[in-house]
Amino acid sequence: MNLFLDAIGEGVQALASGGVDVWEVVATSLRVSGAAVAVALVLGVPAGLYLGMRRGAARNVFLVLANAGMGLPPVVVGLVVAMLLSRRGPLGSLGLLYTRPAMVIAQAVIAMPVVAAVTATAVASVPVELRLQARSLGASRWHEAVLVLKEARMGVVAAVAAGFGAVISEVGAVMMVGGNLEGSTRVMTTAIVQYTRMGRYGPALALSAVLLALVVAVNAVLARVQRSAERFERS
Fold it and tell me: Residues 100-127: pLDDT tens digits?
C-alpha cells in the first residue's frame, strides 16, 4: 500500500512541478495522435463512404479487409513502417525514422481501417429509399454522397472516437518507429513504459491518469456532439 501512496504523491508532485517534462510528453502525444487521426479521416471517411454505398463482390472483399484491419496488431504496423523508413528500406532516403512524422504514419495506418469500417457501417444503415429519392430529384453522385454522409454523421463521430482511442493508447508502433527519444518522440504510452522500467512509478502513474482523462474528455466531447445532432434531428 505504501508503494501506491508514494507513487500517487510523487505523481501529483510531477504534474504540479513539471519536473519530468510531463506536459511536454502530453503535448507530443496530442500532436502526433491528432495528426494521425486527421490523416485517417481524410483517407478513411471517403473509403468508408464508398464501401457503405456500393454493393458487389469487390466491395465485400474490401469491407472484410477494413474490418480485419480494426484488429491489426500495432507491432506489425511498426515493423513494416520501420522497414520502409530504415536506411536500407525503399523510403530510407527521406530520413523519417525516429521522427514524429514516422509516428504519425504508423498511427494513421492503425486508425484508417477503424475509421473506414465504422464509417461504412454508418453509411450502410442509411435507408436506400433516401438515396433513390435524391436521384429522382436529379441529385448528382456527389450530392447523393454528401447527403448520405450527412445522414450518417453520428456514425462518423463514432469513427473519430474509435480512431483516436486506437492510437492515443497505442505503444508498440510508436516505440518502434519513434524510438522514445526524450524531448522529441516520447509520448505518454512510451514514457509510461520507460518510467515503469526505471521503477519511477510516480511519473508513470501521473501520465496514466492524464492519458485516461484525455480519453474520457475526448469521448465526452464527441458524445455531446452526437446528442446535439440527435436533438437537431428531433426538432
Answer: 999 999 999 999 999 999 999 888 888 8
Q: What domain count does the chain have?
A: 1
Backbone angles phi, psi at 170, to 5 degrees: -85, 145
Runs of H (alpha helix) within 57-139: 57-69, 74-85, 100-124, 128-136
**Between 100-124 and 153-168, two packed helices, what is the crossing angle to 10 degrees?**
150
Q: Tell me which residue range forms the domain holding 12.
A: 2-234
> 120-135 pLDDT, tens per residue?
988 888 887 877 787 7
- Three-state secondary structure call for residue 98: coil
Q: State the Cα–Cα distance between residues 125 and 112, nearest whole angstrom.
A: 20
- Residue 82 has a pLDDT of 96
Q: Which CATH number fits the domain that encloses residue 32? A: 1.10.3720.10
User: Look-up: residue for cell 508514494?
Assistant: 6
Average pLDDT of 153-160? 87
Element (DSSP H or E) covering residue 147:
helix 141-151
Are the C-beta atoms of 138 and 125 separated by less than 8 Å?
no
DSSP 151-203: HTHHHHHHHHHHHHHHHHT--HHHHHHHTT-TTTT--HHHHHHHHHHTT-HHH
**pLDDT value at 235 more than 70:** no
∠ CA 129-133-136, nearest 5°, is: 140
173-180: average pLDDT: 94
